[in-house]
Amino acid sequence: MGWEGRGVKGSWKEIKRKIKKIYLAYITWGHHALILNNRKAVITGTFFTIILAIVFTYLQYVEYTESGFSFADSVYGSVFYATTGLHGLHVLVGTLFILVQYLRIVNYQVTTTHHLGHESAILYWQNSI
Q1: Count of CB atoms situated within 10 Å of the CB of 42
Q2: Cα separation values, 88 from 54, 106, 110, 116, Å
Q3: Which single residue of 20, 63, 87, 93 has CA 20 to 30 Å from 125?
């Protein structure tokens, strides 16, 4: 019995891992499309990244509510909620960062030669997972 035997369901962990891989693929596709001046693909890739980030955050919430322990139960519970909570906050900030870039792309404020903010958002996003 590993650490997951104490209340964290392994299936949620696997689903979230797959979602992470998919949204990384979408944001990377969108970035390459930006460099190639393919506006429709940039918008699509960034949009799906935001949707998957919201799904990921929701699954994190579901995992919290279904866990068999609480923050006050033990050191394990405290460490679990503290670390995953900080990670969740980091993902939330990254999602907002990508959302702002999405709005900038839609409003023609991000171009093939003016996209440092978009690249910074992607770097922050990739380091938040």
Answers
A1: 26
A2: 11, 27, 27, 25
A3: 63
Contact present, 85 and 64 (Cβ < 8 Å): no
Quote the CA–CA distance of 34 and 127 in Å, as a whole number. 20
Tell me whether residue 52 is exposed, middle or buried, using C-beta atoms within 10 angstroms of its C-beta: 0 to 12, 13 to 18, 19 or more: buried
Q: Which two tokens stand for residue 69?
A: 């322990």
Candidates 1.10.10.10, 2.60.40.1220, 3.40.50.300, 1.20.120.80; correct CATH number of 3-127? 1.20.120.80
**Residue 7 has which token pair?**
């209340």
pLDDT tens-digit profile of 31-82? 999 999 999 999 999 999 999 999 988 988 888 787 777 777 778 788 888 8
Token pair listed for 92: 């939330």
Per the CB < 8 A criterion, the answer to whether 16 and 10 are in contact is no
Between CA 65 and CA 31 the distance in angstroms is 35
What are the contacts of 71-80 at 24+ separation with CB within 8 A? 76/3, 76/6, 80/8
The structural domains of the chain, with segments of one domain joined by +, span 3-127
